[in-house]
Amino acid sequence: MARQRRLVVPGRLHHVVQRGHNAQAVFADEADRRDYLAALHDAVRAGGLALHAYALLDNQVQLLLTPPTEAALSQAMQSLGRRYGAVHNRRHGRSGTLWEGRFRAGVVQPGRWTLACLQAVDGLAVRQHQADSPQTSLWTSAPHRLGQQRDARLSDPPEYWALGNTPFEREAAYAARLAHG
User: Fold this and answer.
1) Over the stretch 65-95, which tens digit does the pLDDT of each residue have?
2) What is the pLDDT of residues 139-180, one digit of tens each?
3) Other CB atoms closer than 10 Å to residue 90's CB: what's the count?
4) What is the full DSSP assignment across the chain?
5) pTM score, whole prediction
6) Which residues, 6 or more positions from 148, have their beta carbon under 8 angstroms from its beta carbon?
7) Burial class for 22, CB neighbours closer than 10 Å (0-12, 13-18, 19+)
8) Longest dimension (CA), the chain
9) How far apart are CA 126 and CA 168, in angstroms?
10) If we measure between CA atoms, which residue out of 26, 54, 30 comes closest to residue 40?
11) Cα(64)–Cα(122) distance, integer angstroms
Protein backbone atom coordinates (compact mmCIF):
# COMPACT_ATOMS: atom_id res chain seq x y z
CA MET A 1 0.00 0.00 0.00
CA ALA A 2 1.33 3.43 -0.92
CA ARG A 3 2.13 5.96 1.77
CA GLN A 4 -0.36 8.71 2.30
CA ARG A 5 0.94 12.06 1.09
CA ARG A 6 2.07 14.45 3.78
CA LEU A 7 0.19 17.75 3.98
CA VAL A 8 2.61 20.52 3.08
CA VAL A 9 1.48 24.08 2.48
CA PRO A 10 4.15 26.13 0.70
CA GLY A 11 4.90 29.41 2.43
CA ARG A 12 3.43 28.29 5.79
CA LEU A 13 5.27 27.35 8.93
CA HIS A 14 5.56 23.60 9.69
CA HIS A 15 6.39 21.93 13.00
CA VAL A 16 8.65 18.95 12.25
CA VAL A 17 9.47 16.16 14.72
CA GLN A 18 11.98 13.40 14.09
CA ARG A 19 12.68 10.82 16.80
CA GLY A 20 15.45 8.30 17.27
CA HIS A 21 14.67 4.67 16.43
CA ASN A 22 13.28 2.92 19.55
CA ALA A 23 13.77 6.20 21.45
CA GLN A 24 17.55 5.74 21.21
CA ALA A 25 19.89 8.71 21.45
CA VAL A 26 20.66 10.42 18.16
CA PHE A 27 23.26 12.74 19.71
CA ALA A 28 26.08 11.39 21.86
CA ASP A 29 27.95 14.66 22.30
CA GLU A 30 28.44 18.23 21.08
CA ALA A 31 30.26 17.07 17.94
CA ASP A 32 27.14 15.15 16.88
CA ARG A 33 25.00 18.22 17.42
CA ARG A 34 27.41 20.40 15.44
CA ASP A 35 27.36 17.85 12.60
CA TYR A 36 23.56 17.84 12.63
CA LEU A 37 23.34 21.64 12.55
CA ALA A 38 25.80 21.77 9.63
CA ALA A 39 23.75 19.19 7.72
CA LEU A 40 20.54 21.05 8.62
CA HIS A 41 21.97 24.33 7.38
CA ASP A 42 23.02 22.78 4.07
CA ALA A 43 19.66 21.02 3.54
CA VAL A 44 17.67 24.15 4.38
CA ARG A 45 19.80 26.35 2.14
CA ALA A 46 19.69 23.89 -0.78
CA GLY A 47 15.91 23.58 -0.54
CA GLY A 48 15.26 27.29 -0.01
CA LEU A 49 13.48 26.69 3.30
CA ALA A 50 13.35 29.16 6.16
CA LEU A 51 14.47 27.75 9.51
CA HIS A 52 12.70 29.47 12.41
CA ALA A 53 13.50 27.28 15.42
CA TYR A 54 15.21 24.07 16.45
CA ALA A 55 15.66 21.91 19.51
CA LEU A 56 18.24 19.11 19.46
CA LEU A 57 17.37 16.77 22.31
CA ASP A 58 19.18 13.55 23.13
CA ASN A 59 16.68 11.32 21.30
CA GLN A 60 14.76 13.66 19.00
CA VAL A 61 14.82 16.81 16.93
CA GLN A 62 12.10 19.41 16.63
CA LEU A 63 12.18 22.07 13.94
CA LEU A 64 10.04 24.94 12.70
CA LEU A 65 10.47 25.34 8.94
CA THR A 66 8.75 27.18 6.11
CA PRO A 67 9.09 25.40 2.74
CA PRO A 68 8.84 27.35 -0.53
CA THR A 69 7.29 24.42 -2.43
CA GLU A 70 5.34 21.29 -1.59
CA ALA A 71 8.32 19.01 -2.28
CA ALA A 72 10.97 21.12 -0.52
CA LEU A 73 10.22 19.95 3.03
CA SER A 74 10.48 16.22 2.25
CA GLN A 75 13.56 16.70 0.10
CA ALA A 76 15.33 18.70 2.78
CA MET A 77 14.47 16.21 5.54
CA GLN A 78 15.52 13.27 3.34
CA SER A 79 18.85 14.95 2.55
CA LEU A 80 19.37 15.83 6.20
CA GLY A 81 18.52 12.33 7.44
CA ARG A 82 20.81 10.62 4.97
CA ARG A 83 23.75 12.93 5.53
CA TYR A 84 23.57 13.05 9.31
CA GLY A 85 22.71 9.35 9.61
CA ALA A 86 25.78 8.38 7.59
CA VAL A 87 28.07 10.69 9.56
CA HIS A 88 26.66 9.48 12.89
CA ASN A 89 26.92 5.80 11.97
CA ARG A 90 30.48 6.16 10.67
CA ARG A 91 31.59 8.13 13.72
CA HIS A 92 30.05 5.71 16.23
CA GLY A 93 30.81 2.47 14.38
CA ARG A 94 27.22 1.45 13.88
CA SER A 95 24.91 0.66 10.98
CA GLY A 96 21.23 0.77 10.24
CA THR A 97 18.60 3.40 10.61
CA LEU A 98 18.98 6.18 13.11
CA TRP A 99 15.45 7.56 12.80
CA GLU A 100 12.10 6.13 13.80
CA GLY A 101 10.25 5.95 10.50
CA ARG A 102 9.20 9.07 8.65
CA PHE A 103 9.44 12.49 10.19
CA ARG A 104 6.19 13.99 11.45
CA ALA A 105 5.09 17.43 10.31
CA GLY A 106 2.11 19.65 10.90
CA VAL A 107 1.15 23.01 9.45
CA VAL A 108 1.08 25.80 12.05
CA GLN A 109 -1.54 28.53 11.81
CA PRO A 110 -0.18 32.07 11.63
CA GLY A 111 -0.57 34.43 14.57
CA ARG A 112 -0.63 33.30 18.16
CA TRP A 113 -0.09 29.64 17.21
CA THR A 114 3.18 30.50 15.54
CA LEU A 115 4.42 32.18 18.71
CA ALA A 116 3.12 29.30 20.84
CA CYS A 117 4.96 26.78 18.67
CA LEU A 118 8.12 28.90 18.70
CA GLN A 119 8.00 28.99 22.51
CA ALA A 120 7.30 25.26 22.71
CA VAL A 121 10.35 24.37 20.61
CA ASP A 122 12.62 26.91 22.33
CA GLY A 123 11.52 25.72 25.78
CA LEU A 124 11.64 22.00 25.03
CA ALA A 125 15.12 21.35 26.42
CA VAL A 126 14.07 22.83 29.77
CA ARG A 127 10.85 20.77 29.88
CA GLN A 128 12.85 17.62 29.03
CA HIS A 129 15.39 18.43 31.79
CA GLN A 130 18.24 18.82 29.30
CA ALA A 131 18.85 22.48 30.20
CA ASP A 132 18.33 24.55 33.34
CA SER A 133 16.81 27.53 31.51
CA PRO A 134 16.19 28.74 27.95
CA GLN A 135 19.23 31.00 28.36
CA THR A 136 21.49 27.99 29.00
CA SER A 137 19.88 25.84 26.33
CA LEU A 138 22.81 25.64 23.92
CA TRP A 139 21.21 23.30 21.39
CA THR A 140 17.99 25.22 20.78
CA SER A 141 17.22 28.48 19.03
CA ALA A 142 16.25 30.17 22.34
CA PRO A 143 19.61 31.98 22.88
CA HIS A 144 19.19 33.59 19.45
CA ARG A 145 15.80 35.07 20.36
CA LEU A 146 16.98 36.10 23.82
CA GLY A 147 19.83 38.16 22.35
CA GLN A 148 22.63 36.00 23.73
CA GLN A 149 24.00 34.82 20.40
CA ARG A 150 23.16 35.41 16.78
CA ASP A 151 22.45 32.39 14.61
CA ALA A 152 22.64 33.22 10.90
CA ARG A 153 20.71 30.01 10.10
CA LEU A 154 17.55 31.37 11.72
CA SER A 155 14.82 33.51 10.23
CA ASP A 156 12.45 35.11 12.72
CA PRO A 157 8.77 34.89 11.75
CA PRO A 158 6.67 38.09 11.57
CA GLU A 159 4.93 37.18 14.83
CA TYR A 160 8.26 37.45 16.66
CA TRP A 161 8.97 40.82 15.04
CA ALA A 162 5.58 42.07 16.26
CA LEU A 163 6.69 41.61 19.90
CA GLY A 164 8.48 44.98 19.89
CA ASN A 165 9.95 47.81 17.86
CA THR A 166 13.56 47.21 18.87
CA PRO A 167 15.60 44.05 19.31
CA PHE A 168 15.71 44.70 23.06
CA GLU A 169 11.91 44.97 23.28
CA ARG A 170 11.44 41.76 21.28
CA GLU A 171 14.01 39.88 23.36
CA ALA A 172 12.47 41.06 26.66
CA ALA A 173 8.93 40.22 25.52
CA TYR A 174 10.00 36.79 24.31
CA ALA A 175 11.93 36.11 27.53
CA ALA A 176 8.79 36.93 29.52
CA ARG A 177 6.73 34.59 27.34
CA LEU A 178 9.25 31.77 27.82
CA ALA A 179 9.35 32.36 31.59
CA HIS A 180 5.56 31.99 31.81
CA GLY A 181 5.52 28.83 29.74
Assistant:
1) 999 999 999 999 999 999 999 999 999 999 8
2) 999 999 999 998 988 999 999 999 999 999 999 999 999 988
3) 10
4) -PPPPPP--TTS-EEEEEEBGGG--S--SHHHHHHHHHHHHHHHHHHTPEEEEEEE-SSEEEEEEE-SSTTHHHHHHHHHHHHHHHHHHHHHT--S--B-SSPEEEE--STHHHHHHHHHHHTHHHHTTS-SSGGG-TTBSHHHHTTS---TTB---HHHHTT-SSHHHHHHHHHHHHHH-
5) 0.93
6) 135
7) exposed
8) 53
9) 23
10) 54
11) 10
Where does residue 109 rank: exposed (0-12), middle (13-18), buried (19+ CB within 10 A)? exposed
User: By CB neighbour count within 10 A (0-12 exposed, 13-18 middle, 19+ buried), where does 65 fall?
Assistant: buried
Beta pairing partners, 20: 99
Phi, then psi, of 125 in degrees rounded to 5: -65, -35
- Of 117, 146, 116, residue with least CA distance to 131: 146
CB 160 within 8 A of CB 91: no
Burial of 158 (0-12, 13-18, 19+ CB in 10 A): exposed
Pairing label, strands 104-107, 60-66: unpaired
